[in-house]
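Email to the structure team, subject: Acyltransferase model.

Hi all, the expression group asked for a predicted structure before they design truncation constructs. Nothing fancy, just the tokens so they can compare against earlier work. One-line instruction: predict Acyltransferase, return tokens.
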Amino acid sequence: MKIQFAPADLPLRRRLQTASVLQWVFSFIGLAPCCIVLFFTLLFTRFWLISVLYSCWWFIDWETPSKGGRRVHSLCRLRVWEYMRDYFPVKLVKTADLDPRQNYILGFHPHGVMVAGAFTNFCTYATGFRKMFPGLNSFLLMLPLWFRVPFFRDYIMMAGLIPSDKESARFLLRRKGGGNAVVIAVGGAPEALDARPGAYTIILANKKGFVKLAMEHGAHLVPVFSFGENELFDQVENPRGTWLRWIQEKLQCIMGISLPLFHARGVFQYSFGIMPYRKPINTVVGRPIRVEKNEKPTEEELDELHQLYLDELSQLFEENKGKYGVPEHEHLSFV
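Reply from the structure team: attached below.
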């Protein structure tokens, strides 16, 4: 394989963009294990008191992630996120106003390998979510597993991430006065196994939990489609029914996280590595679906609203696919 190296005379701005994404990839893949190692290593050094005191703090602060977290606005405004935005680039597209007096559940599709569009748009202020939708605070749901990692849990909470369990979402949706937008990558970890260029497979046909949650709290549903999310990485072929897919799905059931075998480019060369490709991400926020509060919806009511959501997401995709390079013959496939 011939390796294509990056030019030596790249502008400083492009190098800073690459560096910003590199730290994000490291945070996504390697920071949690490093925090675990650091926590236990400190116990066997003269700095053991740091881990002991942190354990006490951890015990006191245990419920914070499920009660809205602890966002630090100065972190979300850092210049590093603007460099990350410009690397791809990432753009947030508004199609309708969202009343800040209401609470919302934003269904984010597709999950992609690393949910780059969701993180950049809803955890940082780089793409202008707070200006486009004044009065709304966005909270991205993440696997509860990561909130059990010392030090790392505090870092991800500062960006507005909360656990992807019902109680965490309910806490925000129960708040009086509205102004909360709970962002759920509905396809979750299993959908990451289908994330590859040109794929439009959405795991949604039997995903009704978020719809029921919306009905129980009267939170309006908003479909969100991130064009380009699946273009960032190649992935080793793993069709359903193959031994590789079987192993990945078994590991996902055991650990709660999926392990897609992805690859793209490197830092100083473009031929291989785990840095994402520089492909544009256009995250389109659709029209809100009005939901009346119904604490005990019937199966028929749940199915009706779920089908309406599928229809709205499909319409959002069809109305915008031509603007973002999706061939006319491509349509969403719900599984």
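The first strand starts at residue 90 and ends at 94. The radius of gyration is 20 Å. Ping us if the truncation boundaries need rechecking.
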